[in-house]
Design a protein that fits this description.
Elements: H1 2-40, E1 50-57, E2 65-71, E3 77-84, H2 88-108, H3 112-129, E4 134-141, E5 147-153, E6 159-162, E7 167-170, E8 189-193, E9 199-203, H4 219-229, H5 235-250, E10 259-266
Helix pairs in contact: 2-3, 4-5
Protein name: Sigma-B regulation protein RsbU (Phosphoserine phosphatase)
Pfam families: SpoIIE
GO molecular function: phosphatase activity
């Protein structure tokens, strides 16, 4: 009888301790989520001739998608978007590490390719130790010339939305291995001339792979249709329309991957880039 009471007491104590641990873990996860969202949803930079917007919807409380902006001393705006391998707190920690590497590299490099090269050098050993990697796409837009220069580290190509022709297509291809894939990588660059009302839509694959209750994916066709249908909207409304379209398609089904997008729009009243 005493033995049964002892077992009951021990079981009760273990249950109470487990509840305490669960509550502590839940608080830590919420804290990590708050830190991550504050870093992602920082101040949107203001610059002449254009505007940018970033949106990130983590599949869990904390995610591995990443985007950032950096105003360069030469007047250019640098945009980066990425996806860390993995999910949850480990991916969020790597995201913060990636953010630090991007900020540091942007201080000392003058082009997207050099930025990715510096980031790979800084992160390679840590990512190799953790058996992880990061895909990144980095671009510099020059308000003076309208030229977008970009480099790719294993990420999907952004979409170029032509404001005059009302068309959507991928940026001209430029390839590069993911950050942490191989040491001593040199990342090549591509370039495209942007004009008034043109938009660059950067995104992670969580948008295309968003699934509904039947297991069907959102896919590129729906994304392009949504973008073209809202081509006359400002980027804030366009971004929200994409979010609404994905939510309508998925009907509240929990997603396996984060959904992140960045929009860069050329806004130039004198039309000096229009040819």
């Amino acid at each position: 009888m005493y033995f049964i009471k002892d077992l009951s007491f021990v079981a009760s104590k273990i249950s109470a301790e487990k509840q305490m641990i669960d509550k502590t873990l839940e608080r830590e996860i919420h804290l990590a989520s708050n830190i991550q969202m504050k870093l992602l949803n920082g101040k949107i930079p203001k610059f002449e001739g254009g505007e940018v917007l970033g949106i990130s919807l983590p599949a869990r409380l904390v995610g591995g998608d990443y985007y950032d902006f950096y105003l360069l001393g030469n007047g250019k705006i640098r945009v980066v978007i990425g996806d860390v391998m993995g999910k949850g707190i480990p991916a969020a920690m790597l995201m913060i590490l990636t953010r630090g590497a991007f900020r540091s590299a942007s201080e000392s490099t003058d082009s997207p390719g050099k930025t990715l090269t510096a980031m790979n050098q800084a992160l390679y050993e840590d990512l190799r130790t953790l058996k992880s990697f990061v895909t990144l796409f980095c671009a510099d837009w020059d308000p003076q010339t309208g030229i977008l220069t970009y480099a790719n580290a294993g990420h999907n190509l952004p979409l170029f939305i032509d404001g005059k022709e009302r068309t959507v297509k991928e940026l001209p291809k430029v390839s590069g291995i993911m950050i942490g894939g191989l040491p001593n990588q040199v990342y090549k660059e591509g370039a495209i001339q942007l004009k008034n009302d043109d938009i660059i839509f950067f995104y992670t694959d969580g948008i295309l792979e968003a699934q509904n209750k039947d297991g069907h994916q959102y896919k590129m066709e729906r994304l392009v249709h949504t973008l073209v249908s809202n081509i006359d909207k400002g980027i804030k409304e366009m971004g929200q329309r994409v979010v609404d379209s994905v939510n309508l398609f998925t009907e509240g089904v929990p997603q396996k991957d984060d959904i992140t997008m960045v929009l860069l729009k050329v806004i130039n009243g004198n039309n000096q880039y229009r040819v």
